[in-house]
Amino acid sequence: MNINNNKITLPLILSFLIFSILLNSMGVIILQLSQHISYKGLGFLESFKDIPMAVVSLFCVNLIRRTGNKNALIFSLVFIILSCIALPLVDAFWFFKIWLSIVGVSFALAKISVFSIIKDNFKDEQLASTMSRVEASFMIGIFIVNIGFGSLLSSNYAAYWKFGFWIIAVLSIVTLLLLKKTAIEQSNAEKSEFTGGLSFLRTPRILIFFCIIFLLVFVEQSFNSWLPSFYQNNLKVNSYFALQSSAFLALFSFMGRLATSRLILKIHWFKFVISCLVSIFIILGISQLLITFFYSSSRWILIILIPLTGLFLSPLYPLYNSEVLNRIPTNKTHLFISVVVIFSSLGSSLGSLYMAMMFHGKMSNFYPLYIIMPLLFIFGLTFFLNKTIMTYDRK
Predict the structure, then answer these.
(1) Dist CA 392 CA 312 (whole Å)
(2) Can you tell me the distance from the alpha carbon of 19 to that of 144, in angstroms, rounded to the nearest whole number?
(3) Which residue, among 84, 142, 70, has the nearest Cα to 112 in the 3D structure?
(4) 348 alpha carbon, distance to own chain's centre
(5) What is the pTM for the complete model shown?
(6) Chain centroid to CA 249: how far?
């Protein structure tokens, strides 16, 4: 392909940045609406984003193959522009549900398109490095949404916080214009009709991978959407500093993914992943001990300590994805990524519900412990993923 790989990276990074801001605005929305709606009710709000995301990702594979990855990404940005302009103009809770559904559908299209473009243009360690760079922009999006909305909510214009989404609409327009000017080829295998059976989705390594992705997004959602509520309820900080907890989590996560894009060229992915998981266990274990036995004297230590988790949690998702995506046949990439989106959206929805029930049941003092439990399953499954050989139908 006569494609400048560096040139196509910018619109992909901006696209993930935009969707990161939208998807992770849930922490802001939960914090604002919790004054009028119960945590139990807010726990189901996430499903309005995740269920449409899962459903659409299953049925849009052939559509993306016909229209092309670039056009599908353009369609998703158009949907976002229109919905973000409309959100501040409709003052009703039911519209949040519609808006989240639009965000979910658009992200399904965007994620499949972006991952497919990366698959078509990068290979092996370069694929893992590029995936980490693009995913790093996702972390910057979390940082921006919490710093930006946190500043807005603490200002004299807090009542107009929803108009912050107009800035996202402007950024989407800029990204759309860049994308239209960028030449992106689609592999011949992707342009052709899907061939071969679906048996590769049932191979042990793929099934283990899907379980890991489900649990990993489950954990990430427990942090991204509910860490501000934990800071406000348990560490007794105001709304602005509660939102900054996610901002600093995102900042450390960005640093983790940026470092991963370089280190993965030198370190085997399995050693990297295990080191990250062990580091997370240490941080969360110390945090739970401080909450249980030394809360009165360690509150400010916890405020600083918990966001450090992002440094080691953030490399995991792109590393698992790139390790398996490298071995997927090109003509099955769209289908594979669509199933990844389904498991990710289910993990996100159930992770939010899991945390909502914990907060509703007054169990938030065990917040780090509740996050450690699914991470233990990921730790065990990673050994099986590394040892299991993946076979698939190449016909």
Answers:
(1) 32
(2) 12
(3) 70
(4) 9
(5) 0.72
(6) 13
Q: Which of 145, 152, 183 is nearest to 17 (CA)?
A: 145
Measure the CA–CA gap between 79 and 100, rounded to whole angstroms.
12
Structure-token pair, residue 31: 């914090």
First vs last C-alpha separation in the chain: 23
Burial class of residue 155, CB neighbours in 10 A (0-12, 13-18, 19+): exposed
* Pair of tokens at residue 225: 């959407």
Burial of 273 (0-12, 13-18, 19+ CB in 10 A): buried
Q: Which residues contact 381 (CB under 8 A, 6 or more apart)?
A: 208, 211, 212, 215
**CB of 351 within 8 A of CB of 221?**
yes
Output the DSSP codes for 339-386.
HHHHHHHHHHHHHHHHHHHHHHTT-GGGHHHHHHHHHHHHHHHHHHHH
Ordered per-residue pLDDT tens for the chain, 395 residues: 444 566 777 888 888 889 888 887 776 777 676 666 666 666 667 677 777 887 777 777 777 777 888 888 888 899 999 988 988 887 777 777 888 888 888 888 888 888 888 877 766 667 767 777 787 787 788 778 777 877 777 777 777 777 888 888 999 999 999 888 877 766 554 444 444 456 667 788 888 989 999 999 888 887 777 777 777 777 777 666 776 776 788 788 888 888 887 777 778 888 889 999 999 999 999 988 888 887 676 777 877 888 888 889 988 988 888 888 777 777 777 778 788 878 887 887 788 788 878 877 777 788 888 889 999 999 999 998 888 765 543 33
Distance (Å, whole) CA 39 – CA 30: 8
Question: Under 8 Å CB-to-CB from 334, ≥6 apart: which residues?
Answer: 61, 64, 65, 112, 116, 190, 194
Q: What is the rounded CA–CA span in Å between residue 136 and residue 220?
A: 14
Beta carbons of 45 and 349 less than 8 angstroms apart: no
Token pair for residue 283? Answer: 């941080």
d(CA 232, CA 240): 9
> CA 198 → CA 307, 352, 391, 392, 395, distances in Å?
40, 31, 12, 9, 11
